[in-house]
Amino acid sequence: MKRRLLTPALLLIFSGTATAQTSILEGLIPPGSASTSGQIIQMLAVLTVLSIAPGLLIMVTSFTRFAIAFSMLRAGLGLQTTPANLVMISLALFMTFYVMAPVFDRAWQNGVQPLVNNQITQDVAMNEITTPFREFMLRQVRDKDLRLFEDLADESFRTQANEVVDLRILIPAFMISELRRGFEIGFLIVLPFLVIDLIVATLTMSMGMMMLPPTVLSLPFKILFFVLIDGWNILVGSLIRSYS
């Protein structure tokens, strides 16, 4: 008898709780609200941007040039895993923060911070955040690369007279410009090590040591040469000055 009385009571309690939760959800997300749908889309957009943040860092900063130069240095020295990838990427990353510090500071002070404090709208904040990066890329991009993407661009986002360059044109042009400069710097890095390899190979061949790979003998000489000229200081300083 008690069970028969408790069952309806429990059903009433749980149904009341479910009704209360439903009313709360309806208050948070009103049906057919366009603003709520817009907030959901904005949240999805923010999550998407956060997921591709490393790619954005590579596309609009100096990271590409640094990473290519360090990779060329390791290849020129003939070292496969030294310095480790973690060390090389970390050094390139912190050098990127060093070079891009003025750009990051302007984007934060003019765009992100006022947006967090509800002083400006999202559209204004987006323009203030992208402007420092746009100016940085315009200083580094080659005119030839920019014209290439201008000519290939669709009429809908092609740059008109007295208008800012569309990011869909500027970013790929900036990336191929950085790749070209990275390989130019890499050639200058590898060239002296190649000369050492040729000298050692000539000496080993003249002494009849056919079975001994020249790279085995040239490796300590290349490392000694790089250390004696204070190579890290010269390379890092030259890379940073290339953006001044």
What does this structure look like?
This is Flagellar biosynthetic protein FliP. Keywords: Bacterial flagellum, Bacterial flagellum biogenesis, Bacterial flagellum protein export, Cell membrane, Cell projection, Cilium, Flagellum, Membrane, Protein transport, Signal, Transmembrane, Transmembrane helix, Transport. Its main location: membrane. This protein has 244 residues and is an all-alpha fold. The chain has a domain at 58-188. The chain is 80% helix and 0% strand. Helix 5 (85-99) packs across helix 6 (101-116) and helix 7 runs parallel beside helix 9 (167-206). The radius of gyration is 29 Å and the shape is elongated. 19% of the residues are buried. Residues 5-26 have low confidence and may be disordered.
What's the total count of β strands?
A: 0
Mean pLDDT: 76
Structural class label = mainly alpha
Helices, by number, come to: 11
Residues in β-strands, percent: under 5%
Radius of gyration: 29 Å
- Poorly predicted runs are 5-26
* Helix content bin: over 70%
So what's the oligomer here? single chain
End-to-end C-alpha gap: 88 Å
Give the overall shape, derived from the CA principal axes. Answer: elongated
Reported for the largest beta sheet, the result is: none
Topology order in helix (H) and strand (E) letters: HHHHHHHHHHH
